[in-house]
Structures are given as structure tokens and as C-alpha cells.
Design brief:
By secondary structure, this protein is mostly beta strands. The protein has 8 helices and 25 strands. It has a 15-stranded antiparallel sheet that branches. A 7-stranded antiparallel sheet has the order 3-4-5-9-8-7-6, with helices on both faces. The radius of gyration is 26 Å and the shape is globular. 36% of the residues are buried.
């Protein structure tokens, strides 16, 4: 199931992704043991400041996968064979993700737009000679620090602790003249050893700042099991050859129109942020409101929301309390509770969420597991999340590697930290540096209602998505009014297209022409409609539904287990409501 509420992207995405809470991740993101030392790759060369020839071809030709073409992202290439393309939304700048589950092979392609120009290997600026002609006492020369140096630090540090095998600059692409920075490292996770190859494809085009736009290819493959660490591994040699073929197929499209559109979206978004006063935000709040999910006209879930301006400690901001529930005829029942808080200036936020999945235990074939009496064995999963983000001004010491000018300056640091836990244990906290157009969870819930609806315009923000465990771009487009059917009634309404990631499934939110009242939402891909309803409508379908504010989440925010007065199945458990049937 994949739902997105019009007024609560968080709830819909976490409900849809509850099962992902216990899902495995790629080898590249698992905790690793200390990497073993081993011989370098055959294609390894010393770092250079100018492109060398491309690495020597290794292995036999293999049929490549169906060519990936995305003119919006601005790139095309041939993916590795027998790898399945992920349909999940991209992480912030992710273009595409390929995976071969059985063979533990992953390829992720990501756009990198740097804050300032950075070459593969940054040259050291010569010392400035004063007018007197006498050089002052010089500090010891610092090593050059370029993009490859920065990314190498990420490779060799925890959690990977990889042994660097390669660091150089080559040429590739369909015309053989595209500059590509290369890194490779070998690391260990559990009983397996993996090879990680990274390629940074430079995009230098008219109208785009030089040395600021890159595509990163991250290719992870397993090495041969039990292969001696001192001998060349044929699996690694084949992976090097395969990656070379991927890079030789890269084609970069004209990015100027894409960059201009993104800049326009971000400019509108930042302008909107400036105008989000407490008065405007308060006007958009609805103290108490229910939302009903309909699939093929049948109710399959609900969300009940409380919204207010209130305090958390000494801070005043937006408080959103949510109860949510979803069900399917032969699938799991998911209950959720969320508490979101963000200051009106969006510089601080906290949130807490609890999700419980109720189903029957199933075998690998998906069939229910029966007990001694022939009855399906129950299965319950639990997911808990606590997150905070803070923007603060810090005094930092900076040194420009080119001019060698140094000194203290004030910079805004916007950081996010999220803790997630499941019955299997607490995960490693997720920490992210945030862009200025990051949208806190409480504002993400409200955002479609905060958009100006007077004319067609596009906006772009980044939000935390629990089901993906990452910060992801969210695109919203105010479109022309159109005639739609909502709740069985034809109406003319303003449409707002809402999409998570460049290739995410779009949801359309509809607002009244007069006054901008929210009317409902539709996701065509899964035929799911969301309509506003009152409390009585929800209780008529689910008489035991707990629609009270989730005050039990106070314990979650303070580091304990969730509890509550009703519909509980032990500490931190929220049982599904009983229904009246269909």
C-alpha cells in the first residue's frame, strides 16, 4: 500500500512504509568490521590533476540492462545486467537505484550540486609576495583538498572503514571526453567482503557554474567468498570491467533548462517561507478534523488530526497530533500515532511517532503459518521514531584553499537527527545537514494549505520521510482549476500536484475556487481518495477507534516507551479498532 495524505505527508508515508522498518539495507550501509588489507585493483593509478586514459578493459562482454534515460535529471546510461530498478522515491538528489537482491549488487546514481566550485584535486595557491619583496614566515603547507579527497574521507572512515584501492581521474562517456573522478575501496561487513567503486561525472556546460555539478555513481559488489586476500580476485576484476562499461555509456543532456526550473522553484519557496507569519499559519490550522481513505469507493482507513499554536517548554510553535489507521482485506492492519512540533520560524522541531502492524505470520511463500489448532498465528510489529532539527548560528574558522585567506565567520548550521527502533533493537541515529529549504514535519503536514493558489506555480522543499529513512525532495505544483468528482459529487477545483522524488507517484489535492477550502485528494496509481469527514463518520465505521490526542507520545519524546489509555496492547502498542464490517 502506498498512501499520501493531502494534509499529512508524514502519516501516509510512514503508514505505507511500516513494513520497511524491519527491512534489510544494502551492504554499503550496514555496520562493518575492520577492513582487511588486500592488493589494489589492477586498474588503480596514482592521483592526478588531469585526466588519464580510461582503465584497461577486464573480463568478457556481458549484456547490459535496458538503457536508463531521464531528461529531467539530465542523464542516460546502460545499467548492469540482471539488476532491478527501484521504484522507491529518490533520496534528495537520487536519480535512480538498481539492485540485484540475490547477488548483493547495488548501483545508485546521485546528483551532486556543490555550494562552491571544487575540482577533483584542488591545487595549492602560491604564497602571495608583499610589495617589499620579503616573504613573511610561512605556515607549513597544507595538502590540497579536492572532491576526491573529501569523498575518500567518507570511504575510509566509519561505518565502512574501507581500504582505499583507487583514486584517479579518467575520461569516459559516449564521446570519451567526459571527465570522471574515480574512487574504489574494499570493506568487510559480517562474513562478506565487498568492493565499492565510486565515479564522479563532471558536468560543465554553459550557464552552469564550473566544477559545481557532478553525477555520482556508487557501485557495490561482493567479492568471491573465501578468496585469499593476497591474491587478485576474479569477481573484483569482472566488477571493474562492468563498471567501466557503465561509465562508457554515460550521456549528459543539456541541463540549463532543468537548473533554471529548479532555481525558480527554490526562489519561490524561499519567498514563501519569508511570508509564513504566525498569523498566516494560524489561519491555515483546523483545530480538529478527520480524513477518510477510500479505495474503489470503500473505506480502508482514517486519520484524525488536532492542530494548534502552543508551547513546548519555552518555545511557541505549531503542534500537530495525529491518530491514523489503515487496513486491507487480506493484509495487515496498521495503527499509528504522531506528535509534531515546530517553531513558527521553523528553526526548531521535534516529533515522535509510533506505528504498529497487526497481521498473521507468513512463510517465505507468503502463506499463513498455522498453529496446532489450524488457526493462523498472529504477528505484530512495532516501529518507533523520534526526530529533532535545529538551525543555529555558529562561529567557525574557515580557510579558502585557493586564496589561503582565513578567519572566523558566522554560518547557519541546520542539522537533523532521527532515532528509530523496532523489536530487533535501536538503529544507528540518522544525522543529516539540511538545506535552507528543509520543511519540518509539522509544516510538511500543512504545506499544501499554505501555498498561494492564485496562479500556476511550482515549489520545491526537502522533507524527512520515515518509510525511506532519508531526506527527500518534495515537489508541489499549483495547476489550473479543473472539473473533478469528489465524494461522488462533480466540482470545479484548483489542483495541487504533490510528488515525493522526481519519479514518485503523484497525488493531487483539490481546493475550492472560492476561499481555498480543502476538498479532498486522489492518487490515481492506487485508486485511493482522501476526503475530509467528521468524527461521527469515522466512529460509525470503526466504533472503538481511539480519536483522542496521542498524549502517550510524551513518553516517546522523553526516551521511554509509548503508552495510552485506550486501544493498547501493552507498552508502546496501539491495537487496531474494531469495525462494523463492509
Amino acid at each position: 500500500m502506498s498512501w499520501k495524505l493531502p494534509v499529512l505527508a508524514l502519516c501516509s508515508l510512514t503508514l505505507a512504509g511500516a513494513a520497511r522498518a524491519a527491512e534489510g539495507v544494502s551492504p554499503a550501509t550496514l555496520p562493518v568490521a575492520a577492513a582487511t588489507t588486500a592488493p589494489a585493483l589492477a586498474a588503480t593509478t596514482a592521483p592526478t590533476t588531469a585526466p588519464s586514459t580510461r582503465p584497461i578493459a577486464l573480463g568478457e562482454d556481458l549484456p547490459m540492462g535496458q538503457r536508463f534515460v531521464n531528461k529531467i535529471a539530465g542523464i542516460a546510461f546502460d545499467p548492469p545486467p540482471q539488476c532491478e530498478r527501484s521504484k522507491r522515491p529518490g533520496v534528495v538528489e537520487n536519480v535512480v537505484h538498481y539492485r540485484n537482491e540475490a547477488n548483493l549488487i547495488t548501483l545508485t546514481v546521485t546528483r551532486m550540486i556543490l555550494g562552491k566550485p571544487l575540482r577533483f584535486v584542488q591545487p595549492i595557491a602560491p604564497a602571495r609576495v608583499p610589495a617589499s619583496g620579503v616573504l613573511p614566515d610561512e605556515k607549513p603547507a597544507e595538502p590540497a583538498f579536492g572532491l576526491l579527497d573529501m569523498m575518500e574521507n567518507e570511504l575510509v572512515r566509519p561505518p565502512l572503514n574501507a581500504v582505499r584501492l583507487r583514486k584517479d581521474v579518467i575520461t569516459g562517456g559516449t564521446h570519451g571526453d567526459t571527465q570522471i573522478g574515480m574512487l574504489a575501496g574494499r570493506y568487510v561487513t559480517g562474513p562478506r567482503r565487498f568492493l565499492k567503486q565510486q565515479a564522479f561525472v563532471l558536468v560543465n556546460q554553459p550557464g552552469i557554474s564550473e566544477n559545481q555539478f557532478y553525477f555520482m555513481f556508487d557501485f557495490t559488489t561482493p567479492t568471491t567468498p573465501d578468496w585469499p586476500a593476497t591474491a587478485p580476485d576474479p569477481a573484483e576484476r569482472a566488477a571493474v570491467e562492468l563498471f567501466r562499461r557503465v561509465l562508457d555509456s554515460v550521456e549528459i543532456f543539456d541541463m540549463r533548462a532543468v537548473i533554471r526550473e529548479q532555481e525558480d522553484r527554490l526562489f519561490r519557496t524561499r519567498t514563501l517561507f519569508v511570508n509564513l507569519t504566525e498569523e498566516r499559519v494560524t489561519k491555515a490550522l483546523q483545530p480538529e478534523q478527520g480524513y477518510l481513505y477510500l479505495r474503489d469507493g470503500k473505506p480502508v482507513g482514517y486519520t484524525y488530526v488536532y492542530e494548534e499554536i502552543g508551547k513546548r517548554g519555552s518555545d511557541t510553535g505549531v503542534i500537530i497530533d495525529v491518530r491514523a489507521y489503515s487496513e486491507s482485506p487480506d493484509g495487515p492492519k496498521v495503527t499509528a500515532a504522531h506528535e509534531l512540533f515546530a517553531t513558527v520560524n521553523r528553526k526548531q522541531e521535534t516529533w515522535a511517532s509510533v506505528l504498529n502492524t497487526h497481521d498473521v505470520a507468513r512463510d517465505q511463500a507468503g502463506k499463513p503459518i498455522l498453529d496446532a489448532k489450524g488457526m493462523p498465528q498472529p504477528f505484530t510489529d512495532h516501529f518507533q521514531e523520534v526526530g529533532t532539527s535545529v538551525m543555529e548560528a555558529r562561529r567557525v574558522f574557515q580557510r579558502d584553499p585557493l586564496s589561503r585567506v582565513e578567519g572566523f565567520t558566522l554560518v547557519d548550521r541546520y542539522a537533523l537527527i532521527v532515532n528509530q527502533s523496532t523489536p530487533a533493537g535501536t538503529r544507528r541515529p540518522v544525522e543529516r545537514e539540511l538545506a535552507p529549504y528543509y520543511l519540518p514535519q509539522a509544516f510538511s503536514h500543512l504545506f499544501p494549505r499554505l501555498l498561494p493558489l492564485v496562479e500556476p506555480k511550482g515549489f520545491e522543499v526537502v522533507i524527512w520521510v520515515s518509510s525511506e529513512g532519508e531526506v527527500i525532495r518534495r515537489y508541489l505544483d499549483v495547476e489550473q482549476d479543473r472539473r473533478v468528482t469528489i465524494g461522488g459529487k462533480p466540482v470545479r477545483a484548483i489542483a495541487v500536484k504533490d510528488q515525493i522524488g522526481q519519479e514518485g507517484v503523484p497525488t493531487y489535492h483539490y481546493f475550492a475556487l472560492e476561499g481555498g477550502k480543502y476538498l479532498g485528494s486522489m492518487t490515481e496509481a492506487n485508486k485511493t481518495m482522501v476526503v475530509p469527514v467528521d468524527k461521527a463518520t469515522i466512529l460509525e465505521r470503526w466504533p472503538t477507534a481511539d480519536l483522542s490526542p496521542p498524549h502517550e507520545l510524551k513518553k516517546v519524546r522523553e526516551g521511554g516507551a509509548a503508552g495510552g489509555p485506550d486501544n493498547r496492547g501493552g507498552e508502546g502498542r496501539i491495537n487496531p479498532p474494531a469495525g462494523r464490517g463492509r
